[in-house]
Request: fold
Amino acid sequence: MIKELVDLSKDELELVVKGPLLVGLLIAGADGNIDQREMRQGLELAQNQWAKASREYAAFYRAIAEDLEEKFNILLQQYPRDTRKRQKVVVSELEKLNPVLKKIDPRFARPYHKCLLSVSRKIAESSGGFLAKNKVGPEEAAWVNLPMISEPGLHA
Reply:
């Protein structure tokens, strides 16, 4: 395990690992229809970004990326089918990342947060918006910047 995550509890570490999947679930499901194409593109972006991660973090990201689509499908089954109920639960879980990210060294927390934002944007853009005229549809636009997760700052 990487040193920045050593002090996290089991639940906190699980949340960090699950974060990209939760972002995918939030954005891909924003319009009430979880499109596998949207998810696949977002997850592929995550895998590509993680492949470029520093040597220190590469193993961590590889562990997350392994069987990502299967992990997403399992996660999806654990959440309500109703869009609003699901969004509420997922947002609540993503909010729990804030205190966790404050505990983590910013050298890890900031790139992690940036990766979540990239995954969010890629999934939102893959849906094409209304009649493919907008890059991000109105449902995704409300969530694409992940307002429930504060950008990790430089803290001691």
User: Anything to note?
Assistant: DSSP finds eight helices and no strands in the chain. Residues 3 and 105 are 9 Å apart (CA to CA). The helical segments are 10-28, 36-51, 55-65, 68-77, 83-95, 97-103, 106-126, 138-141.
